[in-house]
Amino acid sequence: MWNWSFFQLDILISATGFISLYLIRRKNEKWKSFAFCSDYSKTNYL
């Protein structure tokens, strides 16, 4: 069952992942910050 109380947080975390992929393709060094935010947030669920 889906926990809707975390919906906005899940969307924000997904967005940081997509932004990091976009920045990697543009060869922008800021991608590391967005990837760290995206990866770190996933490990908090464990």
Automatic annotation (TrEMBL):
Listed InterPro entries: Uncharacterised_YvaD
Which residues span the membrane? 6-24
The answer to whether the entry has keyword Transmembrane is yes
Q: Keywords for this entry?
A: Membrane, Transmembrane, Transmembrane helix
Q: What is this protein called?
A: DUF5360 family protein
Please tell me the species this chain comes from.
Lysinibacillus agricola
